Every structure is written in C-alpha cells, then in structure tokens.
Amino acid sequence: MSEEEVKPDLIPTKIYKCKNPECKAWVREEFGSEGQPCPMCKGPMMRSIRHLPKVQNKIKRQPKKKDPWA
User: Region Disordered: what ranges (predicted)?
Assistant: First the structure.
C-alpha cells in the first residue's frame, strides 16, 4: 500500500444528525449542542454515532499578560 492508500484509524464518535431523511447534515458532538437546529435545513437534530477519524484540537496558548503594576 502506498501512503495515499493508508486509511486513518476510525473511532466511534458521538454526533448530532438531522432527522430529515432528505438532509444529510451532521455535526460532531463537541462542535454542536443539545437542541441545536440543523445548520442546513434548520430542522431537528438527534444523537447518533459515526465511525470517524480522530480530531486533534490544537490548544491555543494565551500570551502572558504583563502585570500593569510591575
């Protein structure tokens, strides 16, 4: 297998998917919220699980604040 053909490891991931059968929208749980309307058709969403590659959330470092009294 070449590097292009290597498939990423898939893990069960909690998602919210649109209840409308014609709409294919879904969102990872960490990027959505309970009761959130569908971002595409504004219909109701429901919880589900999908096997997806793991996402690495990069931590944004806050710049150190200088003490104004120093």
Answer: 49-70
Tokens 């793991």 locate to 54
Q: pLDDT band for position 59 (50/70/90)?
A: low
- pLDDT: is 70 or 57 the higher one? 57
pLDDT digits (tens, 9 = 90+) for 26-58: 999 988 888 899 999 999 999 999 999 988 766
| Contact by Cβ (8 Å): 23, 38 | yes
Q: Where are the alpha helices (DSSP H) in the chain?
A: none
Alpha-carbon gap, residue 29 to 16, rounded angstroms: 6
